[in-house]
Amino acid sequence: MIRITVCFLLLTCMASCGILKPRSKAPVVFANNIVVAHRGAFKKNKLPENSIASLKQAIALNCTGSEFDVRMTSDDSLIINHDPAFKKLPIEQTTYAELIKHSLSNGEKLPTLREYLLAGMENNTATRLICEIKPSEISKERGKQIAAKTVALVHALRARERVVYISFDYDILKKIVALDPGVPTQYLNGDRSPEQLKADGITGADYHYSVFKKRPEWIASAKQLNIALNAWTVNDAETMEWLMANDFEFITTNEPELLMELMQKTLTRNGWKLVWSDEFNDQGEPDSTKWGYHPGAHGGGNNELQYYTANDTLNAVVANGVLKIIARKEIRENKAYTSSKLQTRNKAAFTYGRIEVRAKLPAGRGTWPAIWMLGTNIDSSTWPACGEIDIMEHVGYEKDSIYGTIHSDAYNHIKGTQKGKAIYTADPYSRFHVYAIEWSPEKIDFMMDGVVYNHIRNEHLSVKEWPFDAPFYLILNLAIGGGWGGKKGVDDTIFPATMEVDWVRVFQTK
Q1: Maximum pairwise Cα distance, the chain
Q2: Do residues 222 and 229 make contact, with C-beta atoms less than 8 angstroms apart?
Q3: What digits encode the pLDDT tens for the residues 189-210?
Q4: Which residues pair with 166 in a beta bridge?
Q5: Confidence check: pLDDT of 17 > 80
């Protein structure tokens, strides 16, 4: 403890005497984005990770942060390197003089922390320096020594307002908080709740994205407690979009250019707020707080051939991040097939917004998968007066067609006046697509993968034409046969047939 305190005070004193020659301060206003370049922006330009070149590239991209890794050599030099060894030399057992006999792939020498911080402060007023202090392989005490030396150097170089400290070692972060209360700190390991972080003065949860998918309640509690949310290491567009939808402050990535591009398009950056979702990250039955079943031999007057079961994982099951609605050839209640129909009725309903469902459809003649909505007043107004919004319908004998349709008292398929259009795709069965509507008091736009293919405008006539200013609930189902789905018969060789749903998200304007 004495050694750590003396080290901290000595370096601070050296700065005040001008020995360390800190650069002059410039006003710091961090970039208004969520992009943290992991080990610098190295990948696109094939730069060495954790190099000054990759740091400079992250600054040039205007990333809000650039992450780097701190280790300490056997002669107590703080250096930047991710792995515990450099060129097969164990860093904690090797002097810095020995290490710098070897260069990075671009010719740079292995940078010291001092060199790295100074480079990160030069011509940079927008990019945070995200300082990951690696746990010591020698001892926990040495890890705390590394933390103390790092904090002292940051202060000595007057870089405090630019630095965020992160670590997998909780004790390292607690040491930093003790030395410098209020400094931004984020824990990486994913095994502490936001409440525990708050209690210990840690200001951020920087966990692998899978932790947040398994514990979505931590997202809400972190926001309530003002715990910053970051996720690592996110390199695919789908996960980036999920994190942005959940208003993460930061996303750490090896693909900063991709995240920058997606960020400009994301709904939450363009005035939308995620108000309800299911990412299907549990196992077993669908979440009963979000979904109920509509069991029975009903077919909506469409002469369908399935019996909808309830609480049966043979027909509706969540596994590996996907909801599967499965139609099977088995007799139940004089019906030749079983399937499932899930609904948010009595659990969640929405008026206006953008509803998105990422799904992969079942192949085969006789299938009739649907993603749709009904007015919550269906018991009093009945169908079609209650209104129906078919976000996605598909019939298996039309392999390339996706339909989006509205039904109302004036416009419905009984009268042949329904308002529906199709979009065409070659691969509804082999890959997931995002089926969506954007719904306001003036219009409903039907989309697949962001492309609008059916635009329904409010004619402002009467509720008979436009019953869509009221709450509607969501339905996911897979029907078999019926007046439309079974128009060309049912191929019994296709079973079991499965509709897979990756996620459901509802956004509304902020």
Answers
A1: 90
A2: yes
A3: 999 999 999 999 999 999 999 9
A4: 132, 186
A5: no
Across the strands, what pairs with 94?
Answer: none
- CB proximity list for 154: less than 8 A, separation 6 or greater: 117, 131, 160, 163
> Quick check: 149 pLDDT over 70?
yes
Q: Does some domain include residue 12?
A: yes
Distance of CA 25 to the CA centre of its chain: 36
285 occurs within a structural domain: no
d(C-alpha 118, C-alpha 130), whole Å = 14
* pLDDT at 487 > cutoff 60: yes
Domain boundary among 270, 301, 318: 270
pLDDT above 60 for 5: no
Q: Are residues 17 and 105 in the same domain?
A: yes
- Residues 174, 313, single domain; the answer is no
- 3-class state of residue 60 by DSSP: helix
Residue 61 token pair: 């991209």
Q: Do 266 and 397 sit in the same domain of this protein?
A: no
Residues 313/300, Cβ–Cβ less than 8 Å: no
pTM to 2 decimal places: 0.85
Is residue 446 one of the residues assigned to a domain? yes
In percent, the amount of the chain with pLDDT more than 70 equals 95
Domain with 216, as residue range(s), is 2-270
d(CA 164, CA 130): 5
DSSP 401-438: EEEEEEE-SSS-TTTT--EEEEEE-S-TTTS-EEEEEE
Amino acid symbol at 370: A
Cβ atoms 443, 469 nearer than 8 A: no
Q: Give the integer Cα–Cα distance in Å for 456 and 267.
A: 21
User: What amino acid positions are annotated as catalytic residues?
Assistant: 388, 393
344 domain residue, yes or no: yes
What CATH number has the domain bearing residue 479?
2.60.120.200
Looking at the fold, whether 184 and 321 belong to one and the same domain comes out as: no
Rg (CA), the chain: 28
- Alpha carbon separation from 156 to 15, 18, 55, 77 (Å, rounded): 5, 9, 21, 16
Q: What is the dihedral of CA 144, 145, 150, 152, to 10 degrees?
A: 110
User: Do both 259 and 318 map to the same domain?
Assistant: no
pLDDT beyond 50 at 113: yes
The answer to whether 156 and 22 have CB atoms below 8 angstroms apart is yes
pLDDT at 72 over 50: yes
